[in-house]
Design goal:
It holds the Pfam family Glyco_transf_4. This is Putative membrane protein. The protein is an alpha/beta fold and 383 residues long. Helices cover 41% and strands 17% of the residues. It has 2 domains: 187 residues, Rossmann fold, CATH 3.40.50; 178 residues, Rossmann fold (3-Layer(aba) Sandwich), CATH 3.40.50.2000. Helix 5 links the parallel strand 5 and strand 6. The longest helix has 18 residues. 45% of the residues are buried.
């Protein structure tokens, strides 16, 4: 690139700075855009681990203090003015918005600040979560407004785009760019197991069959049904163990559920684990029992780790897990179905191995980060 050619200034905005799926997406794009073509910064709320990870990669971080607060009119107004002032000062060619609050408030602020290109990535829709109908209708309306105010919206799965098929006046505004990843630096099976078992402060027999989930502890992840499935499985499977890596507001309730079913010593909630995907090879099977899921970056990571997968037939999950080909799908909220699927793979080693191999091939072929970067850059530079 000639030295006198101006770099494209891209400013990512995301509400929270923890390290869930949306934050991983922002991190991968911010660090993956070619440095000779793009000048990148990330504006975010909170003081989470995403900030340290971006700093370690020499990505400039801009704190937006009002984004860290819960949704309410006063904090939203404050966030609007913070973002508007920042857009006016930074003068980015592209603002790339992620998450509902950053999307809605940020799209309006960017429009009024005269940003030439506003991109919003829909990592799923909050109106698909369990809420009162009136709340879902309000959220759906403001989601539509966000798409209208943005020049382009990226849906991370066909399922996410399909949720908008009856929305008016958005023809041509939504593009599907499915999630993609680069292979994590996995720990070996032996090392991962040693560290996971040490975190749980327990000795696990060598012949143990270990099931794992990596997820934030929210109701939408369906972990209640996973624990209830293990209550059915454990009496007949003395070497079966379940580890859940992730923090969230459901932790106390889920721990109480483990106690209610007398699953202490067999089901473990380890809380937040930094770079949790590195530990995937500790598991013999990966379980994702979500009630709603845009696509599931963690499914791609499990695929690259060489694990067989049991997952719920929710949202964009079937775009990764094809039942009886790349894993087993079960109906959401069905603890008996989860138990039967796990039992099938516990008993069928060759079947589990075939699913794992086929899933890894699919992830490598269809869900690369290089494809996501190529398609996203094309969107940034499209007139």
């Amino acid at each position: 690139m000639p030295e006198n050619t101006k770099k494209i200034k891209v400013l990512f905005v995301i509400t929270k700075s923890n390290f869930g799926g949306a934050q991983k997406y922002v991190f991968d794009l911010a660090t993956g855009l070619p440095k000779d073509r793009f000048d990148v910064a990330v504006a975010l709320g909170g003081s989470g681990i995403l900030i340290q990870k971006l700093h370690s990669e020499n990505i400039r971080v801009i704190p937006i203090f009002s984004l860290a607060r819960d949704v309410n009119p006063w904090s939203d107004i404050s966030a609007f003015f913070e973002l508007w002032r920042m857009f006016r000062e930074e003068k980015p060619e592209v603002v790339h918005l992620n998450s509902a609050k950053a999307g809605g408030v940020g799209a309006l602020a960017a429009r009024l600040a005269g940003v030439p290109k506003i991109v919003f990535t829909a990592h799923g829709w909050a109106f698909n979560e369990e809420r009162p109908v009136w709340q879902r209708l309000i959220i759906k309306f403001f989601s539509w407004i966000t798409v209208m105010l943005s020049h382009n919206t990226i849906a991370v799965s066909d399922a996410v785009k399909n949720n908008t098929k009856n929305w008016p006046l958005i023809a041509g505004k939504i593009s599907v760019i499915k999630n993609g990843i680069k292979e994590p630096n996995f720990l070996s099976r032996e090392t991962a197991r040693q560290r996971i078992f040490a975190k749980a402060n327990i000795h696990i027999p060598e012949k143990a069959f270990v099931v794992g989930t990596i997820a934030e502890l929210h109701k939408s992840k369906g972990l209640t049904y996973a624990i209830e499935a293990f209550a059915k499985l454990v009496p007949e499977n003395p070497n079966l163990y379940y580890f859940i890596l992730g923090g969230g507001e459901e932790k106390e309730r889920l721990e109480a559920l483990v106690g209610l079913h007398n699953l202490q010593g067999r089901v473990f909630l380890l809380g937040f684990v930094d770079d949790a995907s590195r530990y995937l090879r500790a598991f013999d099977l990966f379980l994702l029992p979500s009630l709603t899921e845009a696509l599931g970056l963690v499914l791609l990571e499990a695929g690259l780790a060489g694990l067989p997968v049991v997952a719920s037939q929710a949202g964009g999950i079937p775009e990764v897990i094809e039942n009886e080909k790349t894993g087993l799908l079960v109906t959401a909220r069905d603890s008996s179905g989860i138990a039967q699927a796990i039992q099938k793979l516990v008993a069928g080693h060759s079947l589990a191995k075939r699913f794992a191999e086929t899933l890894r091939e699919r992830v490598l072929a269809e869900f690369s980060l290089s494809r996501v970067l190529k398609d996203t850059i094309s969107l940034y530079t499209r007139n």
